[in-house]
Amino acid sequence: MLPLARELLRHGTEVVLVANSLPALNDVIAMELPDIVAEAAKHCDILRRAAEAGGLLVDAISNIRDSSKENSSSVPLMVLENGCGSPCIDLRQISAELAAAAKDADLIILEGMGRALHTNFNARFTCDALKLAMVKNQRLAEKLIKGNIYDCVCRYEPAS
After folding, report:
1. Domain Damage-control phosphatase ARMT1-like metal-binding: where (predicted)?
2. Tally of structural domains, the chain
3. Could you read off the pLDDT of 45-74 as tens digits, one per residue?
């Protein structure tokens, strides 16, 4: 997701990276995301600037606190927990912080078979949605997309 986040940031989009609060299978958890972003930021100025502005880089936090008094503009890159510990996501049970951040979103991207297909393939949103996944179950592939195992899904849905 970082290359996609980078591209959105490059175009001036505010990005909220969301991950599980608790471990599930091999998924990244929210506590790990700042370190992952910091490592990627060593190689990418776009991510570095966004991570600094969002306080994700440890050495940038004091600068952010000082400049936030002068500049009330939005944060380009944030990391939030989803309140879950499953590869699926029940959107009725997300964290209050995530619900507040998503309230005025223009686009929601659900990535992964559990989040995008298994539990939210038919979910409708009041903003645009992009559902990205690789189908790793033949029965689900046949049922949802009339396809095969390892087919990829990239489903864009305009706001409903």
Report:
1. 3-144
2. 2
3. 999 999 999 888 754 333 333 443 344 357
Rounded alpha-carbon distances, angstroms, from residue 132 to 6, 114, 148: 17, 10, 16
As a whole number of angstroms, the distance between CA 107 and CA 55 comes to 23
Query: Same structural domain for residues 140 and 82?
Result: no
Summarised one tens digit per residue, pLDDT across range 95-134 is 999 999 999 999 999 999 999 999 999 999 999 999 999 9
Contact 19, 97 (CB under 8 A): no
Exposure of 123 by Cβ count < 10 A (0-12 exposed, 13-18 middle, 19+ buried)? middle
Q: Which domain holds residue 5?
A: 1-58+74-86
4 and 50 inside one domain: yes
For β-strands 152-157 and 107-111, DSSP reports them as unpaired
Which amino acid makes up residue 34? P
